[in-house]
What we know:
The chain has 171 residues and is an alpha+beta fold. It is built from six helices and five strands, in the order αααββαβαββα. It has a five-stranded mixed β-sheet.
Amino acid sequence: xxxxxxxxxxxxxxxxxxxxxxxxxxxxxxxxxxxxxxxxxxxxxxxxxxxxxxxxxxxxxxxxxxxxxxxxxxxxxxxxxxxxxxxxxxxxxxxxxxxxxxxxxxxxxxxxxxxxxxxxxxxxxxxxxxxxxxxxxxxxxxxxxxxxxxxxxxxxxxxxxxxxxxxxxxx
Length: 171
């Protein structure tokens, strides 16, 4: 964690530090809003209860957090870390990334509720017009759910969708 500058001495003025002194903005960079909320989503992902992938989501409206979510079993149910998920016991060489996770009885079946769905379920207010910050690109099912919930923008490291992009399957 970045510490604050010492308070015992006053910062050097331009004249004292010379013409090439760093400004406060250079010394204490402030992340963009997207990077800020993606960082929070990464922290939320640490709570995920999956052996294969930890996903975190932050929903915001007017730059205020209205919900967070991470992937895991339904509340009170045994989770992947307890060995309850068949998929969690298999590697990507046996079950590919998005393969066969919604069919009970198959080796790739996953018991987790996706992070995006958990965030939508526990949002403290209407999500119409909100932005979702996710640690990974959303799967097709979550894209549909986010669009249905009125999410206007989805951001993940290295990419984003506007509202139209959520249901544009050519992307």
